[in-house]
Amino acid sequence: MEKNFGRRFEGKVAIISASTQGIGFGIAERLGLEGAAVVISSRRQRNVDEAVNKLKKRGIEALGLVCHVSNAQHRKDLIKNTIEKYGKIDVVVLNAAANPSVEGILETKESILDKLWEINVKTSILLLQEAAPHLTKNSSVIFVSSITGYHPGRGLAMYGVTKTALLGLTKALADEMAPDTRVNCIAPGFVPTHFASYLINDDEQKRAIEEKTLLNRLGTTQDMAAAVAYLASDDASYVTGETLVIAGGMPSKL
Predict the structure, then answer these.
(1) What pLDDT digit, counting tens, does each position of 196-227 carry?
(2) SS3 for 137?
(3) Known catalytic residue: 159?
């Protein structure tokens, strides 16, 4: 049955990076269903076009742009086109990530280390630098980290370390951008998206992951989107510098 959401983002403009599928798309869809004009992006025009079409079919105001977050001109154009069309930015969700290796940290090549740092941490800072001058008062920035940021296990160790960096970045920027902009973070558990498909293609491995949760299931993109919608909304107007773990009770912190 179709859920009916409120309209907490009526008149708001939200940019979500890496948002034509998976968690990013789920976030864009949820914010759009609650009234936001959403700006989505990814590296491929075809993916952008398909995602915009899906959103518009649901009555969502959407602008789609090609943006490889490592490309400085793409980042500039993403912000420039958003401002030209909507005149402001209320919400920025930094979702872009890469995990090109499952090697141990000491076996990871320098080029892979550079890519992990660049995509998972550096480009989020650079994109936010472009967006910051256009953020409205009472705006919201949300980073997408990971449960692996708390426990960088084998196979995801260096990826997890970059996600740990986002936890610290959230704290630092919450201080730097206060009081006009709130900065928070979500740490998703395992969600069966294309990005994480290699983790759950094997039924035995999928069950092992489910058994690590208290709720005995994997997360969904809707679970993650609901958390972002809360943090971006006025319902969280007194919340900043925090990371919300959405992992079904998997161990994270006290």
Answers:
(1) 666 667 788 888 889 999 999 999 999 999 99
(2) strand
(3) yes
